Amino acid sequence: MFEGFQLAMIDLPEATLRVRYGGSGPPLLLLHGHPRTHTTWHQVAPLLADSFTVICPDLRGFGQSSKPADAHDHEAFSKRAKARDCIALMDRLGFDKFRVAGHDRGSYAAFRLALDHPSRVLKLAILDGVPILEALERCGSRFASSWWHWFFYAQPDKPERAIFADPKAWYGGSAESMGQENFEDFQAAIQDPETVIGMLGDYRAGLALDHVHDKEDREAGRRIQCPLHVIWSLKDDLEFLYGDVISVWQPWAQQKVTGMGIESGHHMAEEAPAELASALKAFFAAK
After folding, report:
1. Is the pTM of this model over 0.90?
2. Quick one: which H or E segment has residue 3?
3. Is residue 2 within 8 Å of residue 20, measured between CB atoms?
4. Residues 249, 83: Cα–Cα separation, whole Å
5. Which long-range contacts (CB under 8 A, 24 or more apart) does 235-239 make?
6. Could you read off the pLDDT of 11-48 as tens digits, one per residue?
7. Residue ranges of the AB hydrolase-1 domain (predicted)?
């Protein structure tokens, strides 16, 4: 995987992140979702590397990156904390301003990054996500039946017990659909109890703190300052839940939001890598 890329464990003020980076050109930060690691980008990143310096970390709590010492400290798992990691990482790599794309749970970290550090983010792409506050405020029977895991994963103790019984059966995935090396990295992550707890912490912070941060920003009138492009999987349920996805995002952005659907299931980086890379390149390279 990632031919020509470097792999490093990078110590930052609050966390140690496993990071894969390579390519040439302006910096582009890619943030993975749940329950993946940075290797989910293994087909997309090389397609972008001729135009960008691509940086793919394991978010704190995921993969081989460090986990907060106190599993019940929601702030340590918050998207605000993960955004601080991203800023520290880009500082360490020597990048002042950069572009960022986030998928699934990574989209919430990317959103928080753009809101908390507007002077650093030049462009933002959100993949398969809406703001956590919007998701909770619009929650109905469709959301509850489709995204029940949001509420289950936020409970104390019970989700760990369910997942630890058979992580492979719980999370699914296969070498055929994910690629052998990506699948092996994913399996190592979900078989590690500390990583599973770290991934659950992301959901616990979502219901405890992240939506509060969203609400504070909305009440203060803070919006995303940079261009925002939203991409969603046509074979997943974002349109089913929200209809016009772009209209959900527009009130959160200073500029007009653009977007598109891709013929893919939820894990678009693995299921439609060429289409996703093309869409990202078109957005991030445009003047």
Report:
1. yes
2. none
3. yes
4. 19
5. 235/263, 235/264, 235/265, 235/266, 236/128, 236/264, 236/265, 236/266, 237/146, 238/128, 238/129, 238/130
6. 999 999 999 999 999 999 999 999 999 999 999 999 99
7. 26-178
* 25 burial type by CB count under 10 A (0-12 exposed, 13-18 middle, 19+ buried): middle
Is the separation of the CB atoms in 232 and 245 below 8 Å? yes
Catalytic (active site) residue 229: no
Q: How far apart are the first and last CA of the chain?
A: 31
Active site residue: 117, 192, 237, 266, which one?
Answer: 266
**Could you say which DSSP state residue 207 is in?**
I
- Those residues with Cβ within 8 angstroms of residue 15's Cβ, 6 or more apart along the chain or in another chain: 60, 65, 66, 85
Catalytic residue among 104, 185, 210, 217: 104
| Domain spans of the chain, in order of start | 6-285
Instruction: Confirm whether 104 is a catalytic residue.
Output: yes
Structure tokens at 279: 């869409």
